[in-house]
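SEQUENCE, STRUCTURE TOKENS:
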Amino acid sequence: MKIKAVFLLGVILVLISVSLLADERQDLWLKAAAEKDLTLRLRYFEEFMEKYGQREDKSSKFLYFNLATTAFQLKEFTKAIGYAEKALTFDDVDGNSKIQLYLLLANSYYLTQTDIDKAYSYAGLVVEFGQSIKENTPETNRSKQLNETLDKNFIAPALRIQTRILYARGKDDPETMMEAAKKALDAYGFDRSQNSAELVLRFAYNISKMGKIDEAIRLVEQLPDPSMKAYQMLANWYYKKGVKEKAVENFTRYYEGSEKNENAAKTALVIGQLLSKKDKTRAAGYFAEAYLLSNSDKESKAFKYLQQLWYNEIAKGKPREEQDSGFQEMISAARERLGPNVP
């Protein structure tokens, strides 16, 4: 998992408490706050903590917040956990800092694998607290931006942490896998990211391998913007279930959105086979495209299916010359559909 800074709602709160500090303390604080090198910044904040951290005044919450976020950026997760939990002991920690600390702790506990239950719990707090902030913020243009930030940078990542924990716990348990998949689907609803969508597909695939194909289909069909991979999975599941109409629908969407190459030829062949009884002309068109995508190989299955369907069924009874002419026209039409890059 990529480590991202969790302080995404605003600039780190390093200068807010400056007015509260005496000159000597203020100089050290500003030195730490201005330092761009994260290792040195952490060292200066820790020096400040050793000298002045025992004072339980308003500056302390900002100190531990900055210690936690800097340690997290340096991937010193054990330190980050200690500092973040200390920061949360102060009664007047603002909501902005609190949700960042919750997500930091969820990530840190998950990445260190020191306490997975705490990782899951803190991730849950991110979701609950984020939703509470949204519900209690009056609707304005600024609130829309805030909601989007909360959705994409806090709530969705927290849900993804929970999905991974559930996945690790229940690889062989369909119910736990379903719970994980639903959380991944919730995450996708908040951020519409490929990361969340891929988790839904991964869990749906695992569920299908457990024999729960209908449940897998329902999950993937809830994605409002399915990827080509999603269409391919749905097509294969419907094909396996024998639901030809839905299989054709999804194979067609996958084929239309895929690069036209030899792999696409296999999809076109399957679509042609599924349509060969119900819609012979359309099936012949897919067989013709599959033939062209197979390097116009006359020994290919696509060419043989095309010949059989055309001469024995579609053009049966017509003069041979007319049959041959129609056959070539059908291939030319397929070549035109595929474009100039196809042999």
Remarks:
- Residues 141-169 form the longest helix (29 residues).
- Confidence is low (pLDDT under 50) at residues 1-20.
- The two ends are 43 Å apart (CA to CA).
